[in-house]
Amino acid sequence: MPACSATRSSASSKPVIDVSELPAILFVNPGSGKGGPTVEELTAAARELGVQVHVLEEDDDLVDLAREADAEVVGMAGGDGSLGAVAQVAVERDLPFVCIPWGTRNHFA
Q1: Which pLDDT score is estimated for 21?
Q2: What architecture is domain 21-101?
Q3: Which of 61, 69, 73, 74 has its CA 20 to 30 A from that of 50?
Q4: Structure pTM?
């Protein structure tokens, strides 16, 4: 996830914020679509930028992990279901959300 600024629509009253220096976590769903970079490549790129990475395991509860994450930015690399789940938590926690469409169809993105 390269350094970037999160922007919101002009109708929003929230300011534009720079998330590049905030503690961030990226959740990765290894069971999502097979296009794009490998789990290892994505994980390495995120860690190079100082982003904490959690590759999901079968018994993980993604919503609980996102709610309990010690981060000020949450991201998800996955398909529509996992992206939607973490996006909802980001809204609940009023956190910036990084969407990495990594699923088969990517309707969410």
Answers
A1: 86
A2: 3-Layer(aba) Sandwich (3.40)
A3: 61
A4: 0.81
